[in-house]
Description:
This is Undecaprenyl-diphosphatase. The protein has 285 residues and is mostly helical.
Amino acid sequence: MDSWISAALLGVVEGLTEFLPISSTGHLILANSLLGLSGQKIATFDVIIQLGAILAVVVLYRRRFLGLVAPSLVQTDQDQSGLAEFAPPPSSQFAGIRGLFLLFLTSLPAALLGLASHDLIKSNLFGPISVAWALGAGAVVILIIETVRPKPRYASLDDITPLLALGIGCFQCLALWPGFSRSAATIMGGMVLGARRTMAAEYSFIAAVPIMIAASGLELVKNLGLFTSSDMMFLVTGFVVSFFSAWAAIKFFIALLGKTTLRPFAYYRLALAPLVLLFWSTGVN
């Protein structure tokens, strides 16, 4: 783990794909294969740079998260940082104990299923061929839902009900298939259940934080001892690049959804999936 260029490339891949409906896990598996990187240290490095992307959400939505843990401290004036679009309204219902409970409901199904099937998923689904099929399946789901386009009934995070939060959590279980995309699963699930597209995306970002921290924390506790001081530059480079890449991707994605649908991401997935199948079917590992 001595190439900061590889670390930066993986950080860019993670940051740009974590919150777009194209699967960061799938792209990291493909990128690691192309770079010839493998082993438990690289798998744990992927977890560390994932935390960099999570931190970008926490910083961008800092007032939302502050509203969850300390509602009385959230200022009601205009955000002077230029990020007012990521702040809650003064009378937010997605705050405090209620907001935390909604996030708990969303995280619960995938957490339980993930714990029960962790070893099975790791041994059978973490490979380029599986990722290719997941990319294609997710693309088909996106196109179907965008074509049917269920009528929105929930316009903002403050409209989320416990049943909606749990329903989105059930859809999030699809993300346990590497390549399907947690973002795609939760956004599509939200839209199917009546959420407006932009609201579903925003909730997808926020709901990613607890379940990704839990999953990443478990991996780090088990494997952080694999690293030495000589690995620090590699780790720090990937983490920092992932943070800034995710920051840019989130702002781009929110702006884009105000103008278009998710179909371009589905077309990208459909184009990528057969290329992956063709490339790796020739025996490249």
